[in-house]
Amino acid sequence: MSTQDPTTWITICDTCKREGWDAASGETDGERLAALVEAAARDMPVRTRRVSCLMGCQQGCNVAVQAAGKLNYTLGRFEVSEEAAQGIVDWAVLHGESASGQVPYRTWPAAVKGHFVTRHPPLPDAE
Fold first, then answer.
1. 3-class secondary structure, 74
2. How far lies 2's CA from each of 7, 13, 47, 71, 85, in Å?
3. H runs (alpha helix) in 1-127
4. In sequence order, what DSSP letters do the residues of 6-17 get, joined into one string?
């Protein structure tokens, strides 16, 4: 459960299938990565959720890191591994600690370098 305000969310596409995906496995690559990210995020100050399709099929496996009032990011091209999952969570924690959501490159975990696909500005206030 997050103790940061606003809460940083890791949204994991659970329908992602990487090239060579084996349908006989019974799980998509996205489901497998989601389980690893969820395990790595346990007891960390971030929240996770799964969605079906982030529309980055050519970039799978995909995740989004988001928080209200901050820059939001989509990351992709992840292989299913504990290292990738831990890197995603570690970067999301840094995102949560940043007032703007921008994380200095020198602090990025190696596992996320080269995986950023998009950056979105925060939504404007309703007023």
1. strand
2. 6, 20, 6, 18, 18
3. 29-41, 82-97
4. SPPEEEEETT--
Hey, is 89 helix, strand or coil?
Answer: helix
pLDDT tens-digit profile of 12-34?
Answer: 999 999 988 888 888 999 999 99
Report pLDDT digits (tens) over 51-102.
Answer: 999 999 888 899 999 999 999 999 999 999 999 999 999 999 999 999 999 9
pTM of the predicted structure, to 2 decimals: 0.93
Structure tokens at 102: 């921008």
d(CA 69, CA 92) in angstroms, rounded, equals: 15
State how far the Cα of 61 lies from the Cα of 54, in Å rounded to an integer: 10
